[in-house]
Amino acid sequence: MIEAVGLTKRYGSKLAVDDLSFTVKPGKVTGFLGPNGAGKSTTMRMMLGLDRPTAGRVLIDGKHYTELKNPLRTLGALVDAKWVHPNRSAHAHLKWMARSNGIPTKRVDEVLDIVGLSEVAHRRAGGFSLGMSQRLGIATALLGDPKILMFDEPVNGLDPEGIHWIRRFMQRLAAEGRTVLVSSHLLSEMAQTAEELVVVGRGKLIAQCSTEEFVDSASNTSVRVRTPQAEQLGEVLASNGLAVARENQQDQHTLLVPDGGTEQVGELAAKHGFVLHELTVQRGSLEEAFMQITGQEVEFSTGQGNEPAAPAAGDVPVAAAEK
Ligand SMILES: Nc1ncnc2c1ncn2[C@@H]1O[C@H](COP(=O)(O)OP(=O)(O)OP(=O)(O)O)[C@@H](O)[C@H]1O
């Protein structure tokens, strides 16, 4: 378990982390989200004892990082995948890390196997692709078989296969009962990976809840109904007190009912003998919810408002702010 209590970090006049309290529990992947400059990296650095809090504390299984006897056995972290001597092989790098942390070197082959790098174990890490480097970073985090894992932007720059692999892998680690905290800018990826969220803005906690609760609390859910008799159905729904909108001007057959349930819309349609070709719940996305909730919390706005960019099919990086 990771527990932050009143965690605060000031750099001169800049309050990077402001009285942050949250808990990351085992057994689930927890996403750590926030616009640029929200304080995620600073918080993660304090978890790893790389930065000292101005006030408050962050505890790793009840202890400060510097009090852990064998830190790698308690908390494994992927912070910078390229942090490897380029002329060292993956195997040599892991062996050196294992030795300097009192971990038996036989664990090196195990973790190389877990992350799928056994075949390239003796190649220079400097020649690794980004995906391979990420895997090596994850192997390093796993060396001490820690109960707690922390990944800072693990899927940045990876291709879809690499992203899929990391997602499945993090979920597996959580299913084994480990605590898994992961920060990412790729919100639709986070929506698929993280069951729980800790959301920060301007160093403060904005939300700690399940991903589903977060999305439901801030984005619009509506019923989408497609029928060749859209106009007549629309009249029936309206006369039953439901707000009805067309999905778009071109499509004459699809209606959106923001406050309705599928049961109510389906039963009214059946009662009046309308043929339905579709009756679905349309949920908002994590992007929509994130932009709505954190829109006011970006450090430097682009000046174009903080409304979401046009809905995209894939991942949308949170680019509403710049450092
Ligand atoms: N060493 C430092 N000295 C001064 N200010 C800093 C330092 N490190 C971070 N900051 C400032 O603290 C704030 C939080 O930065 P941090 O990097 O933790 O945010 P972040 O949420 O990780 O952002 P990003 O998503 O862009 O990486 C920012 O305003 C940043 O400019």
TrEMBL record:
<dbReference type="InterPro" id="IPR017871">
    <property type="entry name" value="ABC_transporter-like_CS"/>
</dbReference>
<feature type="region of interest" description="Disordered">
    <location>
        <begin position="301"/>
        <end position="323"/>
    </location>
</feature>
<dbReference type="Pfam" id="PF00005">
    <property type="entry name" value="ABC_tran"/>
</dbReference>
<protein>
    <submittedName>
        <fullName>ABC transporter ATP-binding protein</fullName>
    </submittedName>
</protein>
<dbReference type="GO" id="GO:0016887">
    <property type="term" value="F:ATP hydrolysis activity"/>
</dbReference>
<comment type="similarity">
    <text>Belongs to the ABC transporter superfamily.</text>
</comment>
<keyword id="KW-0813">Transport</keyword>
<dbReference type="InterPro" id="IPR003593">
    <property type="entry name" value="AAA+_ATPase"/>
</dbReference>
<dbReference type="InterPro" id="IPR003439">
    <property type="entry name" value="ABC_transporter-like_ATP-bd"/>
</dbReference>
<keyword id="KW-0547">Nucleotide-binding</keyword>
<dbReference type="GO" id="GO:0005524">
    <property type="term" value="F:ATP binding"/>
</dbReference>
<keyword id="KW-0067">ATP-binding</keyword>
<dbReference type="InterPro" id="IPR027417">
    <property type="entry name" value="P-loop_NTPase"/>
</dbReference>
<feature type="domain" description="ABC transporter">
    <location>
        <begin position="2"/>
        <end position="227"/>
    </location>
</feature>
<feature type="compositionally biased region" description="Low complexity">
    <location>
        <begin position="308"/>
        <end position="323"/>
    </location>
</feature>
